[in-house]
Write a structure and sequence with these properties.
The complex is a heterodimer. Chain A is about 45% helix and about 10% strand. In chain A, helix 5 links the parallel strand 2 and strand 3. By secondary structure, chain B is of the alpha/beta class. Chain B has two domains: about 170 residues, Thiamin diphosphate (ThDP)-binding fold, Pyr/PP domains (Rossmann fold, 3-Layer(aba) Sandwich), CATH 3.40.50; about 130 residues, 3-Layer(aba) Sandwich (Rossmann fold). In chain B, the strands form three sheets. In chain B, strands 3-2-4-5-7-6-12 form a seven-stranded mixed beta sheet, sandwiched between helices. A five-stranded mixed beta sheet of chain B has the order 9-11-10-13-14, with helices on both faces. Classes of the chains: A alpha/beta, B alpha/beta. The complex binds thiamine diphosphate (TPP) and magnesium ion (MG).
Chain lengths: ~290, ~325
């Protein structure tokens, strides 16, 4: 279990790794990686019961990344969890690497191949249903983009998740309000989204999806209501953590230039320094050296 | 050698030209206007762009409905999603119902390279060939793309056009002509014929140029229309040259190669023949170019295949 401070520091470290591997691969989905990394961080470090040692255990918790394009975030967290050596991240998208530019089961730690949007929820639903059928207690987490919700398959799967009372299924929507062509509400409007999910039978909770403490709090409450699938509407900022990438549609799959990369790294360093300074100050206040 | 633009850019320009002069022209997209180079189109003609969000089935369904009311619809979305996700809509709402939708599969084949199998369309010829009432076209260069889009502006029946996203070498000269359903002779020759389509045509041409240095005289056909296939051009190649190699950015199953094989066998032809495409295996990771090279869709790879076939023929 990581503390809130440790989670926040991890998120910064993950953001730096994501940008490094995107730059190296000259490809990647920068904005959506940065909006969802805090969610992945909390899930893998503090919530899900799964590790490299237990990945073959039928009782492990499962994660399916429906928004597969944000694979850099997932590979980064899996490397940190020890599923494979960190150095392998540097082969992302390179000739003959098994680190394909979308999640693939040829990479240790990945449950399901994704990349075409609108598939993850049904597959996660099937995994959750299997747990019910077998009397197992594992939970299934799946992460969806908000633009992705235009795929009708999500709503088909939602009907079934509610019908089968899959309260072991946790659907997380990365509500960053952007897709490739612009704001979701001008491209393919979703609102009122909370009400739509509720009408489909979910127990819906909203959370600041870039706040690890708030995410911890929400995930600790699963199942929100017995007999209902869980839906976490995670309000996030696309490009979170790097000022000029935040809320900017062009950063959906832009690769930083050398200069942009340097600036981004500087911002992340500053955020890290600020966080540690605050923490040591708070620590001193709590445990004064001189009484 | 002069490199042109990406075929999908030429599509975007051509459809804008058509739409400016014809208010019934509509482009339908699925959060795909950026990938389709259609951002400019959308800014110029916002009323002639229909955006349906990330919903490829919906794109085909809506397009069929729009077409039924006389709209000249170009439904443009990545080929991998449009022809897999939207397949039943293509089969029933478009082809079977004979609604003249122009289905534009962008960034087709392995254009998306290292993004992996979810983003590759190596199945589209195979599944779409098996559906009645659908013309299938894979233009080679900017010229063929422009001519295709103009030719289908007023089509009364459904058409699928498959476009890549890499800049393409011009394989046609200034005096070329283009007819849907007729193979384009890019280069004539008497020893061996390359029958290629789409972005593999310039690769076959480069192989032919390499073989010419060794005194091997190759014919290169751009078989831009996969269906209906120019059967006579295939049989003529069998009569006039000693071996045939088909080349496609598609699975070796069910595409151009097997279409040609069927024509040859049923036409009584017997000659050394090879289908070059993507084999039935988990594909290695790589860019389009790396994948082409890996699987022998390269000037060297095709030249080696040609030498092999001609050696068989000589025995
Ligand atoms: C079926 C399908 N259609 C289209 C795409 C291409 N695509 C990749 S990401 C993306 C936009 C996704 O937007 P959103 O779901 O909001 O993700 P995020 O903002 O979190 O990156 C699109 C259209 C795809 N991967 N799959
Ligand atoms: Mg989004």
């Amino acid at each position: 279990m990581l503390t809130d401070l440790e989670l926040q520091l991890k998120s910064i470290e993950y953001r730096a790794t994501i940008l490094r591997i995107i730059k190296q691969a000259r490809a990647g989905h920068t904005g959506g990686d940065l909006s969802s990394i805090d969610i992945l961080n909390v899930l893998y470090n503090n919530v899900m019961q799964v590790s490299p040692a237990t990945f073959a255990d039928p009782n492990r918790d499962r994660y399916v990344q429906s928004k597969g394009h944000c694979v850099e975030a997932l590979y980064t967290v899996l490397a940190d969890q020890g599923y494979f050596p960190q150095e392998e991240l540097d082969t992302l998208c390179q000739y003959q690497s098994h680190f394909v530019g979308h999640p693939t089961r040829s990479v240790p730690g990945i449950e399901q191949n994704t990349g075409a949007l609108g598939h993850g929820l049904a597959v996660a639903g099937g995994m959750a249903l299997a747990a019910k059928l077998d009397g197992r207690s594992y939970r299934v987490f799946t992460l969806l983009g908000d633009g992705e919700l235009a795929e009708g398959s999500n709503w088909e799967a939602s009907l079934a998740a509610s019908h089968y009372r899959l309260d072991n299924l946790v659907v997380i929507v990365d509500r960053n309000r952007l897709q490739i062509s612009g704001n979701t509400e001008t491209v393919a409007p979703l609102e009122p989204l909370h009400e739509k999910f509720a009408a489909f039978g979910y127990a819906v909770r909203e959370v600041d999806g870039n706040d690890p403490a708030a995410l911890m709090d929400i995930f600790n409450r699963v199942p929100f209501e017995a007999g209902k699938p869980n839906l976490v509407l995670a309000n996030t900022v696309k490009g979170k953590g790097v000022s000029f990438m935040e809320n900017s549609v062009k950063w959906h799959h832009r690769v930083p230039t050398d200069e942009e990369y340097a600036t981004a790294m500087r911002e992340l360093d500053e955020a890290r320094a600020k966080l540690t300074a605050q923490a040591s100050e708070a620590g001193q206040r709590r445990y004064p050296v001189h009484a | 050698m002069e490199l042109g633009r990406a075929n999908l850019e030429v599509f975007a320009d051509t459809v804008l030209e058509l739409a400016c002069a014809d208010r019934d022209v509509l482009v339908v997209t699925s959060d795909s206007r950026g990938s389709g180079k259609l951002t400019g189109y959308g800014e110029t003609l916002p009323d002639q762009l229909v955006e349906l969000g990330i919903a490829e089935q919906n794109v085909i369904g809506f397009s069929a409905g729009l077409a039924s009311a006389g709209k000249k619809v170009f439904a443009a979305s990545p080929a991998c999603f449009l022809t897999a996700r939207g397949l039943e809509q293509i089969k029933n709402d478009v082809a079977y119902s004979d609604q003249p939708v122009r289905i534009i599969g962008i960034s087709a084949g392995v254009s998306y390279g290292a993004l992996g199998a979810t983003h590759h369309s190596l199945h589209d010829f195979a599944v779409l060939r098996a559906i009645n009432n659908l013309t299938i076209i894979a233009p080679a260069d900017n010229f063929e793309t422009r001519e295709t889009i103009r030719a289908i502006h007023n089509t009364p029946h459904p058409v699928y056009v498959r476009l890549g996203k890499a800049p393409q070498r011009h394989v046609h000269g200034a005096d070329s002509s283009f007819t849907i359903g007729k193979a384009a002779v890019i280069q004539d020759g008497g020893d061996l014929t390359f029958i290629a389509c789409g972005e593999t045509v310039p690769v076959a041409l480069a192989a032919a140029e390499q073989l010419a240095l060794e005194g091997i005289d190759c014919r290169v056909l751009s078989m831009h229309t996969i269906k209906p296939l120019d059967e006579e051009a295939v049989l003529q190649a069998a009569r006039e040259t000693r071996a045939i190699i088909t080349v496609e950015e598609h699975s070796v199953f069910g595409g151009l190669g097997e279409a040609c094989a069927s024509v040859l066998m049923q036409g009584g032809a017997s000659l050394p023949f090879k289908i070059v495409g993507f084999p039935d295996e988990y594909m290695v990771t790589g860019s389009q170019k790396e994948l082409f090279n890996h699987y022998g869709i390269s000037p060297d790879g095709l030249a080696a295949s040609a030498r092999q076939l001609l050696a068989v023929e000589a025995r």
